[in-house]
Amino acid sequence: MANSVKLEIITPSKMFYRGYVEIVITTTLEGDEGFMYGHSWACKLLDIGELWIQEAGAAKDEFKVAAIAGGFIDVRDSIIIYTDAVEWSEDIDMDRVLSEKAKAEDWLTHHEKDGDPNDVIKAKIAISKAITRAHVAEGGYRRKH
Amino acid sequence: MASNNMQDIKRRIKSVTSTEHITNAMKLVSAGKLRKAKAIFEKTNANSHYITHTIAEIFHSGQDIPQEYLAGNREIKTTCYIVVTSGRGLCGGFNTNVLKEAQKDIDNDWEEPIIYAIGTKGKEYFEKRGYKIYGDYLAPPENISFLETRKMSLPIIEMYNRGEIDEVVLIYTSFISSMEQEVKNITLLPFEVDEETDIIRDTKQVEYEPSVEAVFNYLVPKYVETMIYAAVVESATCEHAARRTAMENATENARDMLDQLSLYYNRARQSAITDEIIEIVAGSEAQK
């Protein structure tokens, strides 16, 4: 068993997760990356994506999966992930995800050219968040492929 | 004459009693709201401390921080004040204390300040005095969401980056206990690096990705947002605590007043009776 490292995931309104993990895998702006005990100190921005956690003492392929809406990770002697929103796969409400995705896509088809650029970006972000959450709800992209 | 006086006192007793009912009910409502707000506050407080601490740590340990966010690198001319007040009155000195502190600070500035008002009371105050109000948030503060604070802080940070404002000051009420609140005045930007903090300056190399600038450009707005969000939540808690105290005092005063009034009423009644007896006695004496 490898050494475990303390992980804390914080959102503005609550402490989402606190515990010891073997590895945490997140999507940074430059690609997926795994952090384990003794990782060199880092401060990285996260993209919208999946968050994989293998808790200390868990079986080799037993992961907890969550959808994360960007943020940043601060790796020191312990790891802190700070994000605006994060959800465990089992808490994701599929109907809401799909309806939000449909709404954003619908808006985009009508307004992509003439809409406010900020709104267009927002809609695109909403779609990518929805896609991520849909993947996560089904157990994660990585597991599916 | 005496009966007239009695009528007056009776009427006053009635009005004070109904006021007492109202203040007492408001006290109970505030106590309930305070409990709720306190629960939210305690949850966010722990986390926002955490976040600000982390961010402060990064600010301290990083050597290549973009200079525009550090104190002492440009002259402070225009200041943006974010003043957190409540949307409703009847909460004692809660709003006055915040506004007094803000006014004191503004009076010390040479240039005209820009004001961001959270809560109607602050907005009305500054509007009346002809200050430039850049923006406001008037919905009840206890229901604020993080998204809304982001919408508030984004334009402020943009203004800062464009150089239209040189300083961002947050004035809000900080919660010490249910009985005690204190007005706090925090400079959000520029970030002041305090050399003597207990944060250990580590020399370990930290990897920044995609780049130091990118990380800081992300962190600075985050810091401002978090601070504003925490301040609004804290201020809402204080508002309820202040209102509860104010209403408790009002109820107590009303009860004291009722005691006094019923004393006067009884006195007036007694003297009326005495007058009547004297009249009867005098009448029967005269008939002898």
TrEMBL record, chain A:
Membrane topology qualifier: Peripheral membrane protein
SUPFAM superfamilies in the cross-refs: Epsilon subunit of F1F0-ATP synthase N-terminal domain
A Pfam family reported for this protein in Swiss-Prot or TrEMBL: ATP-synt_DE_N
Highest taxon of source: Bacteria
Residues covered by the ATP synthase F1 complex delta/epsilon subunit N-terminal domain: 6-84
GO molecular function, one term: proton-transporting ATP synthase activity, rotational mechanism
InterPro entries given in the database record: ATP_synth_F1_dsu/esu (IPR001469), ATP_synth_F1_dsu/esu_N (IPR020546), ATP_synth_F1_esu_C (IPR020547), ATPsynth_dsu/esu_N (IPR036771)
UniProt key word Transcription: no
UniProt feature coiled coil, ranges: none
Gene Ontology CC annotations of this record: endomembrane system; plasma membrane; proton-transporting ATP synthase complex
Subcellular location: Cell membrane; Endomembrane system
UniProt entry keywords in alphabetical sequence: ATP synthesis, Cell membrane, CF(1), Hydrogen ion transport, Ion transport, Membrane, Transport
Domain spans labelled ATP synthase epsilon subunit C-terminal: 90-138
Transferase listed as a keyword: no
CDD domains per the UniProt record, alphabetical: F1-ATPase_delta
Subunit structure: F-type ATPases have 2 components, CF(1) - the catalytic core - and CF(0) - the membrane proton channel. CF(1) has five subunits: alpha(3), beta(3), gamma(1), delta(1), epsilon(1). CF(0) has three main subunits: a, b and c.
Family (UniProt): Belongs to the ATPase epsilon chain family.
Physiological role: Produces ATP from ADP in the presence of a proton gradient across the membrane.
Protein name: ATP synthase epsilon chain
Organism listed in the record: Lentihominibacter hominis
TrEMBL record, chain B:
CDD domains according to UniProt: F1-ATPase_gamma
Statement: the UniProt record of this protein carries the keyword Membrane: yes
Pfam families the UniProt entry points to: ATP-synt
The UniProt record lists the keyword Transmembrane helix: no
Record key words, sorted: ATP synthesis, Cell membrane, CF(1), Hydrogen ion transport, Ion transport, Membrane, Transport
UniProt GO molecular function: ATP binding; proton-transporting ATP synthase activity, rotational mechanism
Gene3D superfamilies given in the database record: 3.40.1380.10, ATP synthase, gamma subunit, helix hairpin domain
Membrane topology note: Peripheral membrane protein
GO cellular component: plasma membrane; proton-transporting ATP synthase complex
Compartments, as annotated in UniProt: Cell membrane; Membrane
Biological processes per GO annotation: proton motive force-driven plasma membrane ATP synthesis
Family stated for the protein in its record: Belongs to the ATPase gamma chain family.
Biological role: Produces ATP from ADP in the presence of a proton gradient across the membrane. The gamma chain is believed to be important in regulating ATPase activity and the flow of protons through the CF(0) complex.
Subunit structure: F-type ATPases have 2 components, CF(1) - the catalytic core - and CF(0) - the membrane proton channel. CF(1) has five subunits: alpha(3), beta(3), gamma(1), delta(1), epsilon(1). CF(0) has three main subunits: a, b and c.
The protein's name: ATP synthase gamma chain
Species of provenance: Lentihominibacter hominis
